[in-house]
């Protein structure tokens, strides 16, 4: 198994989370799992003179200028993402059923939200979680999520689950914390059609009823 390397900033956030070592742990992504990222980002692109082409899952090559339909330069994508998170993190709509499913699952375990977004936008994401009935600890991560999942999951002796839309994060978790059960979720149906199940995930579940059923079944098999 790969050696987990974690930035001190992320490690400090994780260590501040009060986890019950005996309860199952659900580590949950935010964008396209709890919040409708693509719908909100597409609206932002339209408002800033761009559009999304929907030719593939990647942002690079699919963000185009309205003026000439040409893709924006690669170095412009981080700028657009930063502007989006700065302006709209607090207002992104929740994924249907997310709050309700997590509320039921949290009676059998505990939930931590592990989200890749600029750290300065963490308060806005926290506000959005509270607004939509998802009052769970938030860890603002940067880069592949395997090291963070390793540190979180090692804090409990019960089963751990990871839910994320990014195949790269499933690969990272498989490398750093292979004991964690991995659910690949892409809530936006347009985006889901462009992406096969992540090779390093155990399940593909693109809505919360099916994700809840998978986790509930695995918990029951393990006596929780």
Question: What are the key terms here?
Answer:
single chain; 224 residues; alpha/beta; Rossmann fold; 6-stranded parallel β-sheet; two-stranded antiparallel sheet; 9 helices; 38% helix
Can you tell me about this structure?
The chain has two domains: about 10-35 and about 95-220, 3-Layer(aba) Sandwich (Rossmann fold); about 40-90, no CATH class. Helices cover about 40% and strands about 15% of the residues. It has helices at about 10-15, 35-45, 75-90, 100-105, 120-130, 145-155, 165-175, 190, 210-220, and strands spanning about 25-30, 50, 65, 110-115, 140, 160-165, 180-185, 205. Strand 4, helix 5 and strand 5 (about 140) form a beta-alpha-beta unit. Helix 2 crosses helix 3, helix 4 packs parallel to helix 9 (about 210-220) and helix 6 (about 145-155) crosses helix 7. The chain is globular.
Q: Report strand order across the widest sheet.
A: 5-4-1-6-7-8
Number of domains: 2
Low-pLDDT residue spans: none
Proportion of helical residues: 25-40%
Give the C-level CATH assignment of the largest domain.
Alpha Beta
What is the gyration radius calculated from CA atoms? 17 Å
Briefly say what this structure is.
With 224 residues, the chain is α/β, with parallel strands linked by helices.
How does the SSE layout of this entry go?
Blueprint: H1 8-15, E1 25-28, H2 37-47, E2 50-52, E3 63-65, H3 77-88, H4 98-105, E4 110-116, H5 122-131, E5 138-141, H6 146-153, E6 160-164, H7 167-176, E7 181-184, H8 189-192, E8 203-204, H9 208-221
Parallel strand pairs: 1-4, 1-6, 4-5, 6-7, 7-8
Antiparallel strand pairs: 2-3
Helix pairs in contact: 2-3, 4-9, 6-7
């Amino acid at each position: 198994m790969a050696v987990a390397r974690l930035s001190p900033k992320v490690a400090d956030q994780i260590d501040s989370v009060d986890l019950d070592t005996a309860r199952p742990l659900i580590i949950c992504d935010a964008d396209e799992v709890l919040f409708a990222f693509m719908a909100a980002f597409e609206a932002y692109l339209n408002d800033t003179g761009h559009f999304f082409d929907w030719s593939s899952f990647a942002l690079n090559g699919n963000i185009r200028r309205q003026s000439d339909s040409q893709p924006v330069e690669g170095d412009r994508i981080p700028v657009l993402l930063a502007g989006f998170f700065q302006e709209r993190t607090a207002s992104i709509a929740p994924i249907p059923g997310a709050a309700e499913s997590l509320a039921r699952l949290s009676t059998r375990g505990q939930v931590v939200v592990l989200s890749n977004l600029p750290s300065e936008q963490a308060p806005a994401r926290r506000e959005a979680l509270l607004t939509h009935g998802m009052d769970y600890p938030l860890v603002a991560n940067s880069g592949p999520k395997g090291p963070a999942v390793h540190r979180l999951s090692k804090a409990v002796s019960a089963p751990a689950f990871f839910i994320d839309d990014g195949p790269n994060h499933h690969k990272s978790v498989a490398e750093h914390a292979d004991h964690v059960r991995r659910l690949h979720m892409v809530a936006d149906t347009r985006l889901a059609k462009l992406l096969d199940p992540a090779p390093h995930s155990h399940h593909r579940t693109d809505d919360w009823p099916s994700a809840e059923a998978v986790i509930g079944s695995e918990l029951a098999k393990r006596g929780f």
